[in-house]
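Dear Dr. L.,

I hope this message finds you well. Following up on our conversation about the binding site, I have prepared a predicted three-dimensional model of the protein together with iron/sulfur cluster. For your records, I am including the exact sequence and ligand specification that went into the calculation, followed by the structure tokens. Please feel free to forward this to your student if that is useful.
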Amino acid sequence: MKLLMHTCCAPCSVYCIKSLREEGIEPTLFWYNPNIHPVMEYVARRDTLIKYSEMIDAKLILKEEYGLREFCKNVCNDVENRCVNYCYRVRLEETARYAKENGFDAITTTLFVSPYQKHDDIKKICKEIASKYGLEFVYRDFRVGFREGQNEARQLGLYMQKYCGCIYSEESRYFNHNQGMPRLPEGFEFLPVKHSVNIKKEKDDKERYLKLLLEADPSEEMINKYLSNGELFVLTYNDEPACVAVVTKINNDTVELKNIATKENFRGKGYAKKMIKYLLDNYKPRYKKMIVGTTENNIPFYVKQGFDKYEKTIKNFFVDNYNEEIKDGDLVCTDLIYYSKDLKKVER
Ligand code: SF4
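The resulting structure of the complex is given below.
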């Protein structure tokens, strides 16, 4: 099989190339990423891939296009949906076009390794484009090797990018990391704001938190099942419940984070993150692993909290277990995707 693999960067390619080679498939790498900005970032990622392809003796085709203006022109009216509506499509379409014109018979992409990407959407787009060009679509869920590949890339000293690629993702990175804190003129400082945040296990009157739990899981029946045998934790801000979480025991080694919900007016302040940190510290002495089942939209959040090992996908979970259509933002939920955190690796 002559496989052309769209390659977004060197670190993401490490596991993809390795696992395909183990299957006896030698992919040709195809660099076409007009979504990477600014110029120096584009150059750093491209040159790292050139260096890495030489190191591992992989064939690399470079299709150069620094596309800031074209990219912004195409996504500025719908920035939130830019990945699916434009970015994936434009890169995969060019990959397929090149493959067709140059005697390849199959395509795939390294985007399938990243738990931060919209995996199912990429799969759908890839399938559609491959069929349009009469090519085979080689699908692999490379996410199982994401961490392994990243670690290897780090050990090799490859340049590791800090954001997905476009200026919008760079902006998200900045705001996420700085919590939107504005800068004050020199000589001024923020006065400490009095607040108290506490987390405790709630043994009695668990039903009191049902309304908030329903924000993360719309089935009262489901919640009642795991609430009765699970442990409920409540984070309060100045004595007001702001975030709740339920954890159940799976076996002697594993617990599952079944539900975590933050009240609307407390969202975006890091309370869910604080709650997860607390839970990991709390269960670490007694268990080896914590798992969480999530929709595709929330994978990046959990990966950032350390749930970086892909476990399994329960196909059609939301269709089979709920009477009504379940939505997460714009996403109609179908599959439940499990990730885990090794509790032995929790730093105190
Ligand atoms: S966040 Fe990443 S995938 Fe989405 S548009 Fe930006 S570069 Fe493309």
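In brief: The chain has twelve helices and 14 strands.

With kind regards,
A. P.
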